[in-house]
Specification:
Layout: E1 2-11, E2 14-18, E3 25-28, H1 31-47, E4 50-56, H2 63-70, E5 73-76, H3 108-114, H4 117-132, H5 147-157, E6 191-195, E7 210-214, H6 215-219, H7 237-247
Parallel strand pairs: 1-4, 4-5
Antiparallel strand pairs: 1-2, 2-3, 6-7
Helix pairs in contact: 1-2, 4-5
Bound molecules: zinc ion.
Length: about 250
C-alpha cells in the first residue's frame, strides 16, 4: 500500500506529526503524548500494509527507536526548516474566541418541537456521506451508513455530546452569502458524528463505534471535559445527568 511521509515539528508551541495535507495530524503540547499517539497510528497502519516515513525537525529522543520498532523509519532534519503544512481549517484551542450567542434551542424537546423531519435529515445525510467517504490513508470504510442510521445516533443521545454532555444540535454558523463562518464560539453546540475509535487508527462505521459529539470535542480530544462552560457549552438540567450515565459506557480514544 506504500509509504506516507509525515513531518515532526513544533508548530505554535505544540508538537505535531502531520502529513502535508494534515489528513494525519497529531498535536500535543507534550512531546511524549504526541509520540505515543503517533506510535498507535503507526502500528494500526502497519497492519494494513501502510508504512510511515518521518522527517523529524525536532529531536525524537528515545521515541525514534520506539517508532522504528512500530514500523516507521525516520530521518533527523534538526536545524532545518520544515516545509509548510496545509492551512489549519479549524480554530485551535487557546485562540481568542468571540462570546457565544444565546442557544438556538433550549432543550432536546425544544429542538424536536421547532424543527421538522425535513429540516433534520439533510445534516444526517451530510454526516453519513462524510462517514462513507474513502480517505487517502484509512481507505474506504467497511460499513456504509445511511442518514437514518445517523438520526438513530442523534436520537439515542438526545442530541448531547458524548464527551462534554453539551446539547449539540445547532448547525455550523454561516455568513450571509452562505460561506462558512467561524464556529469556535459555539463549538460545543454544533453536532457531529463521532467515531469512538477514530477511522485513522482502524475504527469503522459499525454501530457500536458511532456516537454523537459536539464539533469541539470531536475536533480536539484534549478538550473533552465534562460540563465545560467554554465554547458555548450548554447543559439543560436533564441533559447532564443522562449524559453522565452514557459516559460510563464510553471507552476513551483520546
Ligand atoms: Zn463536547
Amino acid at each position: 500500500m506504500g509509504v506516507r511521509t509525515v513531518t515532526f515539528r513544533l508548530e505554535g508551541g505544540r508538537y505535531v506529526f502531520a502529513t502535508s495535507d494534515r489528513e494525519v495530524w497529531i498535536v500535543s503540547q507534550h512531546k511524549q503524548e504526541a509520540a505515543e499517539l503517533f506510535t498507535r497510528v503507526v502500528r494500526a497502519f502497519a497492519e494494513k500494509g501502510v508504512r510511515f516515513y518521518i522527517e523529524a525537525y525536532e529531536d525524537l529522543g528515545p521515541w525514534r527507536r520506539t517508532l522504528r520498532e512500530a514500523g516507521a523509519t525516520s530521518r533527523l532534519r534538526l536545524g532545518k526548516t520544515p516545509p509548510p503544512l496545509d492551512r489549519v481549517r479549524w480554530q485551535m484551542p487557546g485562540a481568542p474566541v468571540a462570546d457565544a450567542p444565546p442557544p438556538v434551542f433550549q432543550s432536546w424537546e425544544d429542538y424536536m418541537a421547532r424543527t421538522t423531519l425535513q429540516q433534520r435529515m439533510p445534516r444526517c445525510y451530510a454526516a453519513s456521506k462524510k462517514a462513507n467517504r474513502k480517505r487517502l490513508i484509512s481507505g474506504a470504510p467497511f460499513t456504509r451508513i445511511t442518514a437514518a442510521d445517523v438520526w438513530l445516533v442523534i436520537e439515542a443521545a438526545r442530541g448531547r455530546c458524548i464527551h462534554c454532555g453539551s446539547l449539540a444540535v445547532e448547525s455550523r454558523p454561516s455568513k450571509a452569502n452562505g460561506a462558512p463562518a467561524p464556529w469556535a464560539q459555539v463549538g460545543r453546540r454544533i453536532g457531529s458524528l463521532e467515531h469512538l475509535k477514530a477511522r485513522v487508527i482502524g475504527g469503522d462505521n459499525f454501530k457500536e463505534n458511532l456516537a454523537w459529539a459536539c464539533l469541539w470535542c470531536n475536533t480536539w480530544p484534549n478538550e473533552r471535559r465534562r460540563a465545560a462552560e467554554d465554547h458555548g457549552g450548554f447543559y439543560p438540567d436533564d441533559a447532564v445527568q443522562d449524559s453522565l450515565t452514557i459516559a460510563g459506557h464510553v471507552v476513551g480514544d483520546a
